[in-house]
Amino acid sequence: MKSAILAAAFLASAATAQPMSGVYPVGRGGPGVDSFPTIQAAAAALSSRGLAGDVDFPIQQFVYTGPVTLRNVAGSDRFRTRFYPEGLGAIVDAGGAGHGFAVENTANVTVRGLRFRGCRDSGSAFVRFTASDQCTLRSCRLEDSAQFGVQVIRSACFVAESLRLEGDLLGPASRGIDFQDCMCAFATRCSMLGRVGNGLWIEGGSGNGNYRVTVVNPTNHGLHVENSPMARIHNFVSRGSSQYAGYVVNSPFSMFDSCVFAGAARTCAHFESSESTMFDMGMGIGDGERAVAVINSPYSEVMKLSVMGSPAVGLYIKGSPECHAESTQYAGFFSDTCVGVLVDSSDCTMFTYLQMYGRVQRGISIRKSTDVKVRHARMKLTAAEAGLHLEAAPRFAVQPCSLMMTGAGAAVLVADSSEDDSFQRVTIIDTPRTGIVARGARRMVVANSFVTGWTDAGIRLDGTRTTGLYYNTVVGLPLGTGAAVHLQGATDVQAIDNILVSRGGDSSACYRITGAWPLRAGGSDYNDLYVAGSGATGRVNDTLYRTLADWRALPWNPDLSSIAADPMFAADTDFHILTNSPCRDSGTPVPGFEFDIDADERDPVSPDIGADEFQPGAVAGNNPVPASAFLRIAGSVADAGARVQYTLPAAADVELRLFDATGRSVLLFRPGRQEAGRHDLDLQLDHLAPGAYLLRLRAGNQRAGAKLVRQ
Question: N- to C-terminal Cα distance for the chain?
Answer without folding.
Answer: 134
